[in-house]
Write a structure and sequence with these properties.
By secondary structure, the chain is an alpha+beta fold. The protein is built from 3 helices and 6 strands. It has a single domain, classed as Alpha-Beta Plaits (2-Layer Sandwich). Strands 2-3-1-6 form a 4-stranded antiparallel sheet, covered by helices on one side. Helix 1 packs antiparallel against helix 3. The two termini are 20 Å apart.
Length: 117
Amino acid sequence: MYTLISKWTILPGHEQEAIKALKKLPSLVKKAEPDTLMYTVHTPDFTQTNLPTPPSGEVVFFEIYKNKKAFDNHVNGQVFKTFVATYGHLFLYNLGAPFVTLELLTHQAGFIREGIM
């Protein structure tokens, strides 16, 4: 299992367009990438207290892949490349690509309840 949290930043003024595009992304990944086991997209809930307060425009991806090869296939695959080419301008960019923070995780324990999404 290859698990990660990735964060992007939506540029100010592009929130609605970016969220609309992000809401379509998981179903495209699910259809095209059978070795992507979980792919969820989240934004902070500013109606509740967050410690520390996340930045405005933050997008959090929580992803689980069968293995590193599946992850590599995702970032080099058609769905991801098309998304970046089409919607990348809505996000903070650095060196010609969306600025991404990436945290790789080692699974210690837990479960994903079937049918929650």
